[in-house]
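Write out this protein's structure.
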Amino acid sequence: MRHVAILGGGPAGLAAAQAALAAGGRVSLLDEGDRLGGQFWRHHERLTDPRLQHGWQRFERLRGALAAGDVQVHVGASVWSAEASADGVRLRAVVGEADGDRRTALEVDADAVVVATGAHDLALPVPGWTLPGVTTAGAAQALAKRDGVAVGRRTLVSGSGPFLLPVARSLALAGSHVVGVHEAARATALAGGWLPRPWELSAKAGEFLGYVGALARDRIPYRAGSAVVRVLGGDRVEGAVVARLDADWRPVPGTEREVACDAVALGHGFTPRLEAALALGCAIDGDHRGRFVAVDDAQRTSIAGVFAAGEVTGIGGADAALAEGAVAGFVAAGGAPDDHRLTGPLTARRRLRRFAARLERAHGIRPGWTSWLDDDTIVCRCEAVTRRAIVERADVPVRAMRLATRAGLGPCQGRTCGRAVETIVAESGGAATSVAFDRRPVLAPLRLGELAVLADAGPDT
């Protein structure tokens, strides 16, 4: 019986666990959240509006499969070290409340690992985005889904991608007056991405029409080719400047207008969490415009015994993550890639990869967004590093630039600003195709006292 470790308890991780059990394996699942579900199933079924509980029955089935199988589930597990060798994989974690001082050490040795660490929000900086009242779109939705809390009384949603629609819906259900949804992609880009071969989108059509209908009922304006280019306020958000954008996302002169609001939710897609995959030695495809773990048709990475699934292999949504997770978990546990039980997941994966390609064509970030910034715009929020400081040191290696400016060296370690910093560096003539903002020798925050206890306990702890 093969022992499969799974990093992440979202759709990809849960599907991988279920499939590994079906293939006869045993599973150790580690997730840093206080409960399973990941970003997608983060709502609380007893506290929030049932209309926010998307795919809840699927979640219940997956959770039930874990309860009935040979599975050890570790929530609140922050994995700080991941190593792969010819003998298998070794994961080291601390378990407990993130801010607690009594976390316990956990070590997992397994035959294979499925990296299903997901992605986090990508919010492009704009002047004023550090004001209280500005959140990522994902954070705004999380508060609504998990706690039934609206981030503001009058909220403006801006960014790119279909995710803006459920965010606006969630905010409205939580009691916020959503004053507008501003999609940066122009109508021509949306048409080019979504209109060809419409029959391929039949599975998503009902969901999309449901959101469109909800926005219409709530009288929420939707503006394509438009974005927040400045947030206004003193001690907190008091309004925002929106402008029409050209095809490259540069503001069209003379189209700026002010919108009164007390909260702004920014969301320009997602960026994968690659730290664990890099620590395990996995090959990465792409550059500063988007990097993902390279996998084959069985979700194998370049490292034997290491598989990857979900948003770390490409941004495709929960359904794609479920399909990829099923393939990865089944094969990781010793199942054959051509087993008839994978027919459904493999078919779904092919269809959903085409959906992901459409998503990129329609909503992919265009280079003109940097024209929103002025020299004094803070790009790295943690260390208050401005665009000017980054541009002035763009001609040195990325590591040297980071040390000189401290961009990406704050508490978030570049998770919020990394892609933006790399884009600004590349635009200024520097080389920003490394994985400097994703490679972390210590994958998660670890107290020195915790590290000392581990060291005292011996090298195998």
